[in-house]
Amino acid sequence: MSMKKMLAVVAAASLVAVAAPAFAANPFSDVPMNHWAYDAVEQLSAKGILEGYPNGTFKGNRAMTRYEIATMVARMMAAGGLSGEDLEKLKALVVEFQPELEALGVKVDGFDSRLSALEKGLGGWKITGQMRFDYNAWDTDEALTGAAADGFTMNRGRLFLHRDLTDGVSFDARWHNDAFDRFWVTARDFLGMDGLTLKGGQFALDWEGEDGLYDDNDAFFMDSNYRGFDLKYNRGAFTVEGFAGSNKGNYSGTGDIVRGVYAPNARDEYYGARLKFDFSEKFWLSLNGLWTNAADANWNVYWAGLGFKFTDGIELKGAYYMEDISDDSLLVVGADDPKAWKVALDVSQDVLKFTSLWVEYSKIDQGFYIHNNPWSFSDVVWPNYTGFQAQDDTDVLFVRAKQEWNDKWSTIERYVKYDMSAFGDAKEWSVAIGYQYTPNLYFELAYADMDGRWDDPNYDNNQIRFRTLLNF
């Protein structure tokens, strides 16, 4: 932590200590355990953003007062250095606990005057967005299926809309790829039942992401849009969830689904169910199922996720997947109810001091469908096709390290190796330098080298990418 940050945190702590006696006679009321603030604070705490309260950890398994949460928000405001989704979470916490923060002597008005102006000027609407703009240069001129060609490209342009309504009801929407690909309503404490949340419309679900089963790329399944209803009930260490939807789509293509926009028919139906148990702060287990009759062919997948945290900043986790495909004509010859499993060691930079580390090993049967690309930098070595089917028994070793040198500079190293029994090996490594110019604006220069690919053991290419990322 820089000296400037340390002084800011100490100052915030002093304000809290001075103000605390004023509340002793009139303590704040408890915040219900299902309040969204618990998730927001816990997520920020898990990333090391919440420092020194009261011992550097967040105890999210007990009810807390608004005063206690406000003190944590004050510390995060003093620490600073946030961007993107983390900054948006902190903004929401500041708005929610503004009276308590002001009572603690923390000035809120100047924290984000732009946010206040937007809320007042748009009648309560909150608008945020993201732009991801790339320049790519490849070593060869050959056609690259699934990868960006040479030159400048708008990798991503998104707008997010949010509006809080009454009685725990809110509306959200996302503009992406020239269309609203997500728009949904959320009702918390649905039917008066604490911890029950209803979500309806066109929304995203990513249960593997919620379990932290992948690093900085995609999940095996889900991590996509669904149109329908989702019902989730959380009570302490126990969570149960189920959804029913139709016409999942999240890719550019032809036919019924183009760029994540749904066709008017409901031919393809999707259903999912999930149980998660947080047995303690160190140990969790999840059981998940996803069923579909997409393209008139039944396809089902079941997986169990498991995680154990040895200490703060060191976690071992993994998952085992089983697929059930009723139409044998969709399977690679010789494949039958394919399976896969993976295990990952996740170590934070707080533990190793100079770097964070993610080491993952996966084993995939021939014929196993993966809906996304979990590892590749370029989507060339292992293609990013929706519904890509492993053509061979495949072992995957993936390693990613990131060094946060200070508030501005970072470096990233990635390595992935695919060992395919019939196609041979393929590997890809990349290095990157990142510069956080402001909390909202980030630049990254990366180099990637590819040697072999899933359909061509002689493939050889490299890529230079300069990325501009703006969150607002």
Description:
This protein folds into two domains: 3-115, no CATH class; 122-471, Porin, CATH 2.40.160. The protein is built from eight helices and 22 strands. The chain has helices spanning 3-24, 36-46, 66-79, 84-96, 98-103, 113-121, 207-210, 349-352, and strands at residues 30-31, 64-65, 125-138, 151-164, 169-176, 179-188, 196-205, 224-235, 238-246, 269-278, 283-292, 299-311, 314-325, 339-347, 356-364, 369-370, 388-389, 394-404, 409-420, 424-436, 441-453, 456-471.
Please tag this protein with its features:
472 residues, alpha+beta, Porin, 2 domains, two-stranded antiparallel sheet, 8 helices, 22 strands, disordered N terminus
Topology:
Layout: H1 3-24, E1 30-31, H2 36-46, E2 64-65, H3 66-79, H4 84-96, H5 98-103, H6 113-121, E3 125-138, E4 151-164, E5 169-176, E6 179-188, E7 196-205, H7 207-210, E8 224-235, E9 238-246, E10 269-278, E11 283-292, E12 299-311, E13 314-325, E14 339-347, H8 349-352, E15 356-364, E16 369-370, E17 388-389, E18 394-404, E19 409-420, E20 424-436, E21 441-453, E22 456-471
Antiparallel strand pairs: 1-2, 3-4, 3-22, 4-5, 5-6, 6-7, 7-8, 8-9, 9-10, 10-11, 11-12, 12-13, 13-14, 14-15, 15-18, 16-17, 18-19, 19-20, 20-21, 21-22
Helix pairs in contact: 1-3, 2-4
Biggest sheet character: 18 strands, antiparallel, barrel
CATH class of the largest domain, named Mainly Beta
Number of helices: 8
CATH topology of the largest domain: Porin
Order of helices and strands: HEHEHHHHEEEEEHEEEEEEEHEEEEEEEE
